[in-house]
Design a protein that fits this description.
heterotrimer, A mainly alpha, B mainly alpha, C alpha/beta, A: mainly alpha, two-stranded antiparallel sheet, 2 strands, 78% helix, C: alpha/beta, six-stranded mixed β-sheet, four-stranded antiparallel β-sheet, globular
Chain lengths: 330, 286, 232
């Protein structure tokens, strides 16, 4: 009873926050806040794709930036090389999807039949490889300095990009919700709990894991494309380990295996980064905000393995138990 | 001829440096199935502490011992605070070691700054020697020597001592070692600290080798060490040694003949091994 | 000597042991029968501290072992031979047995000598890597290792599994001889083997002890042995 009520409260607050986000640009004309929120949405998408791996399938990736970077470079390069038009924008995104599918399929087939650290390793290795390619293959990628490109006119409008990112995030949230509740999603969750049993039941675990890896790769590449569009600039840092760490931090801090958690985590991490680096201009110790994020991350893993969302879930469960006890004693 | 000999020495010395990192990694994995992503952190700490001590004291050995000591101390704290609490949960261990790595690297940036630092070299190791018309760089020979000595010591420890027997038995079957009344967690702590010390030693050797050190180099070498550990077979020190030398030599020769391929060659080796023999060259575990 | 009282164990969410009660008497061979999945192995593993005890107690010489880590349980003097023998493939036979001694003293040296007399093969293959031994030799090694390491009680999980009848015969002979120096709790599916050497028996079914008593009684009770053990 109470749990249902609480769920409804969470649902309502979600809708209210969404409404607030929708009217926010019209009530506030802080440009930096608009950009920061757009960033939150984009990394929310990226982190959700990570959650699909870590939270729903039990796969650890240490090179998820690989797909983010593929999306960013595909979109940037297509728009830069060919015409600046909507169709080229979509072509870039599709190219990103295609590459992400191929790469995640290869990595998945190679490593997902083995213990979990092989996938972690191989993704990390591949992302380093792509980083080097992005730096060294100057004729195509413009090397370490990166390149700027022109976005189609409608994507140059900050307000439009804000809503576009918000809508994308909501859409992907809904799609992933449907996916994780589908029959495939249920198998994935079963795999994360007990892989051997799922295998024994006659499912080819490898195929399901590869599917999860491909879907996560495609979504990450989409977030990378959006990221490139907002900056209208791409450089090899999209392949850096910091990108993967961001996704990992957001997912863990927000709450692994919840989808809404990574979005929350994205908000927390982005705002923390923003404010800590502002503080850094006054107190030099805050320049090393990554250190604080790292410590926060460790505290979360050791102390609150389910993250913020998990903490709320625990709370509501405890409330339910207490109210039951209360009724019993009454 | 001269070039090829020098490439051989380059490859061997790089390979043995990687081995110093990989040996601890492979034993820690074999014993506890913990893939320690922070291992590169001990390595880079070793390098920075060495440079700091060496510039302060000017004494090579004091600096090396100090760096190893700090490495072991960090390993000790690390194992107690981060690895122990999530004992038995591989995914959380994997995740927490990555967080640890992040903190170790950031602490280096905080203490020594973000810019690369120049590393000196004691005079008696500087320069080169001539051997039958071939010019050999002294320090590289020194690295090879130290690497081989450490390999010999590790093998001696594993083969000839009781604790080594326990470690090998633990790699084979952890549960059964406990059933023999042996506290495997204590053995694991010991191996972890030892591994951290050897990694720190690797860092100290690397610092003069590369001439400059920077916070991010830990991850670069850690990736090489991971590749090596997988190629060699998780848990096998012999495999790690052989794979280190293969990776070192492959890197040296490709860097000379096809410089653009040098990182790719390691990935190709890794993919090749994963396809043909995922257990690695000497691996018992899959 | 060993008293297990109302033991309950969960593996993940599964309630495997649902109140297991039995006793192992000093100097005797006690056999735990039961079909696959009855919970025999889980019982041994719970005693050894591999699974947390959800309920009930394990007492050894009147000392409660609950929640001790495995290595301390072993140090109380309990030796364990797991179902898969749990040998160390990369150690030689000699290394394994020296490791089992834990401390080198007169007592453990005597135990080692006796085991090498009982299983001459182990002496012969002293230098051989354990991974290269035959199935029967591995079983001998596992039993010898547990005996040398222990002091009073051996838990042996299905020693006859996968071995030839001749080898089973040999092992039984050895276990019977070991009875003079140690108490034994034997898990077995092989009724004919175990009924020959056992003094007491218990039958497990669905995580509970359903019968127990003197082995001789079981041999005479055709109905009981038919019902639970499928022998007539």
């Amino acid at each position: 009873m109470l749990a249902a009520k609480l769920n409804r409260i969470y649902g309502y607050s979600g809708v209210i926050i969404l409404l607030l986000l929708l009217i926010f640009p019209f009530t506030n004309d802080s440009r930096s806040m608009l950009i920061l929120l757009t960033q939150v949405f984009i990394f929310g998408i990226f982190a959700m794709s990570y959650d699909l791996l870590l939270g729903y399938t039990g796969i650890v990736s240490f090179g998820h930036c690989l797909f983010f970077g593929i999306g960013a470079y595909s979109t940037g390069l297509v728009l830069n090389t060919f015409a600046t038009s909507i169709s080229m924008f979509f072509l870039g995104i599709c190219l990103g999807f295609l590459l992400a599918t191929v790469v995640s399929y290869i990595i998945g087939m190679l490593s997902l039949r083995l213990q979990s650290h092989f996938y972690a390793m191989l993704t990390l290795g591949f992302s380093e490889l792509f980083l080097v390619i992005a730096e060294k293959w100057r004729s195509v990628t413009h090397g370490g300095d990166g390149f700027t490109f022109r976005a189609p006119a409608f994507l140059q409008d900050r307000l439009f990009v804000y809503f576009f990112a918000l809508a994308s995030m909501v859409m992907i949230f809904i799609l992933l919700r449907l996916f994780t509740n589908s029959s495939i999603g249920k198998v994935l969750r079963a795999i994360s709990q007990n892989e051997a049993r799922v295998q024994a039941l006659g499912f080819t675990v490898l195929h399901y894991k590869v599917i999860a890896s491909i879907v996560a790769g495609i979504i990450a590449s989409y977030s990378g494309a959006l990221y490139a569009i907002t900056l209208r600039f791409v450089d090899p840092s999209v392949f850096s380990i910091e990108m993967t760490l961001d996704a990992l931090l957001m997912t863990m801090i927000g709450g692994v295996g919840t989808l809404i958690g990574p979005i929350l985590g994205s908000g927390v991490v982005e705002f923390l980064q923003h404010y800590l680096s502002q503080l850094g201009s006054q107190f030099p110790i805050f320049e090393r905000w990554t250190l604080f994020l790292g410590l926060l991350y460790i505290v979360v893993i050791l102390g609150f393995p389910k993250g913020i969302v998990g903490m709320f879930q625990e709370l509501s469960k405890r409330d339910v138990k207490e109210s039951k006890n209360y009724r019993k004693s009454a | 001829m001269n070039a090829i000999l020098n490439l051989l020495i380059n490859g061997l010395s790089t390979g043995l440096l990687i081995f110093l990192l990989a040996s601890g990694l492979t034993l820690i994995f074999g014993l506890m199935s913990v893939l320690n992503f922070a291992h590169g952190g001990f390595f880079v700490w070793g390098a920075f502490v060495w440079v700091w001590l060496f510039s302060a004291t000017g004494n090579f050995f004091i600096s090396v011992v100090g760096a190893i000591g700090i490495g072991m101390l960090i390993g000790f704290i690390f194992e107690k605070t981060l690895i122990r609490p999530v004992y038995g949960n591989h995914i959380r261990q994997l995740l927490v070691t990555l967080g640890g790595m992040l903190v170790l690297v950031e602490l280096i940036r905080m203490i020594w700054g973000s810019n690369p630092i120049r590393a000196g070299l004691p005079v008696w190791l500087d320069g080169s020697i001539q051997l039958g018309g071939v010019v050999l760089i002294k320090y590289r020979l020194f690295v090879i020597l130290v690497g081989l000595i450490i390999y010999g010591l590790i093998m001696l420890l594993l083969k000839k001592t009781k604790i080594g027997m326990i470690i090998r038995a633990g790699v084979d079957n952890r549960e059964m070692v406990q059933a023999l009344g042996i506290n495997i967690k204590a053995v694991f702590s010991m191996v972890f600290i030892l591994g951290a010390g050897i990694a720190a030693l690797g860092g100290t050797l690397l610092a003069p080798y590369s001439g400059i050190i920077f916070a991010d180099m830990g991850l670069q070498y850690a990736i090489l060490a991971f590749i090596v550990v997988i190629i060699g077979g998780l848990g096998s020190v012999r495999g790690a040694a052989l794979a280190s030398i293969i990776v070192g030599l492959a890197g040296a020769f490709t860097a000379f003949y096809y410089p653009d391929l040098s990182l790719a060659v390691n990935m190709l080796l890794l993919i090749f091994v994963l396809l043909l023999r995922p257990k690695g060259l000497f691996g018992e575990k899959g | 000597m060993l008293k297990v009282d109302n033991l309950e164990t969960y593996i993940e969410q599964f309630h495997i042991l649902q109140g297991v009660t039995f006793e192992v008497r000093k100097g005797m061979i006690t056999v735990l029968f039961g079909r696959n999945g009855a919970g025999k192995t889980t019982t041994l593993r719970t005693i050894m501290g591999y699974y947390p005890i959800a309920n009930g107690t394990v007492r050894y010489n009147d000392e409660v072992l609950n929640n001790l880590p495995t290595h301390l349980i072993a140090r109380k003097g309990i030796g364990y031979v797991p179902e898969d023998q749990g040998i160390f493939p990369s150690l030689t036979v000699g290394e394994t047995l020296v490791l089992a001694q834990r401390e080198k003293n007169k007592e453990t040296e005597e135990k080692l000598t006796w085991m090498l007399e009982l299983f001459p093969d182990l002496k012969k293959f002293w230098q051989k890597r354990s991974g290269l031994l035959s199935g029967g030799q591995k079983q001998m090694l596992a039993i010898a290792r547990a005996f040398i390491n222990s002091d009073g009680l051996l838990l042996i999980d299905e020693p006859s599994k996968g071995l030839s009848p001749l080898m089973v015969e040999k092992l039984m002979e050895a276990i019977l001889q070991m009875k003079e120096k140690t108490t034994i709790l034997l898990v077995e599916q092989n009724y004919f083997m175990a009924s020959e050497i056992g003094d007491y028996f218990y039958i497990m079914d669905d995580g509970k002890i359903v019968h127990g008593g003197l082995m001789d009684e079981l041999k005479e009770d055709a109905e009981l042995s038919m019902k639970y053990l499928g022998v007539s």
